[in-house]
Amino acid sequence: MVIGDSGAGKTTLLKRIVANRAEFQPYQDRYGISTSPLISVVAPSPCTLKQLGREVLRALGYPLSREIKEHMVWELVRQQIRIRKVMFIHIDEMQHAVNTLNDTERQKLSDTIKNVMQQPDWPVCFILSGIPTLARLVSSDVQLMRRSRIFEFSNLEFAKDAVSVRKMIEHMVTKHAEMQLASALPDEFIHRLLHAAYGRFGVVIQLVRGAIEQAMFDEAAGGQVKARHFAAAYSRFSGCTEDENVFLRADWQMLQPSAALVRDRPAEEVSPAPKRRRKV
Ligand SMILES: Nc1ncnc2c1ncn2[C@@H]1O[C@H](COP(=O)(O)OP(=O)(O)O)[C@@H](O)[C@H]1O
Ligand SMILES: [Mg+2]
Predict the structure, then answer these.
(1) Is residue 127 part of a domain?
(2) How far is the C-alpha of 81 from the C-alpha of 243, rounded, in Å?
(3) Residue-wise pLDDT tens digits, 185-244
(4) Closest residue by CA, ligand 1 atom 26
């Protein structure tokens, strides 16, 4: 299980691991048939056990056109993973399944997962990722908990992570973008950045990239990334006014940062909000 708040970086991390590790790579079996040891799906929302099974079947290349019973869907999943030699089933946004179900249905879900994991002739591993409510799935089932390993993303904190966040910003600006930082980053700036990003690793990266982009289009900046570019990036992502901008307000600690950056949806879909202007 990979658990972390929205924007922590779960999906990106798993994509990278799947792309890089040998055991997840597709291969040709001895009959020349292309075989993929891992399939990846996103749990639909809302999501019943049957819908989840249909989604897994679709990823297995076995889409169902007709209505069939829930247990038949999962029977087909068990059959198809064996035929297609799938060894890992990754389900992202798994909290959609957990949140939608009542206690009985949730127990059925964990029983189904256990059954598929433990098929005597073809056992598989599940990789389940999602936000912290997903943990309810294992906390209510001791057998599943015993069979699980949990990797948890913790949010970044100033006291613990300021040094590495500062290094990361410097690296992104000087190495990735080949630009310069206008000045050394004071502690307070890092604090504001972590506050604006709710401490989420991925959101920090998005904000830094956004600031670099602002600097690139700012001819007057002369290739330097300045504090005002962070403010502009934040305002673009969140649609906030100057008055609500964590990078501009003196009493920024009192501001609730914009939730637009950490909404529970794939980050790829997050498009910059239109800029609202209001005279202060
Ligand atoms: N390791 C990383 N390297 C570069 N960018 C990252 C990394 N992790 C996260 N990001 C950025 O943060 C955004 C949010 O991360 P994502 O993986 O979608 O988070 P989650 O799945 O936990 O909600 C991504 O779209 C990406 O831009
Ligand atoms: Mg994600």
Answers:
(1) yes
(2) 55
(3) 999 999 999 999 999 999 999 999 999 999 999 999 999 999 999 999 999 999 999 999
(4) 202
Atom of ligand 1 nearest to the CA of 15: 17
The answer, yes or no, to whether residue 142 has pLDDT greater than 90, is yes
Q: How far away, in angstroms, is 277 Cα from ligand 2 center? A: 31
Closest by CA position to 155, among listed 4, 2, 1: 4
Q: Which ligand is nearest to the CA of 94?
A: 2
Strands 38-42 and 88-92: parallel
From ligand 2's centre to the CA of 265, what distance in Å? Answer: 7
- pLDDT band at residue 30 using 50, 70 and 90 as cut-offs: confident
Asked if 55 and 41 touch (Cβ cutoff 8 Å), the reply is: yes
CB 86 within 8 A of CB 36: yes
**Who lines ligand 1 at CB under 6 A?**
4, 6-12, 201-202, 205-206, 267
In which domain, by residue range, is 134 found?
2-152
The CATH number of whichever domain residue 84 belongs to comes to 3.40.50.300
Q: How many whole angstroms from 225 Cα to the centroid of ligand 1? A: 22
Place of tokens 């190495």: 175
261 shares a domain with 188 = yes
Q: Would you state the pLDDT for residue 264?
A: 58
Cis previous bond, 46, omega within 30: yes
Residue 30: what residue type?
R
- % of the chain at pLDDT higher than 70: 94
Domain count, the chain: 2
Which pair of tokens denotes residue 210? Answer: 């956004």
The ligand whose atoms approach the alpha carbon of 271 most closely is 1
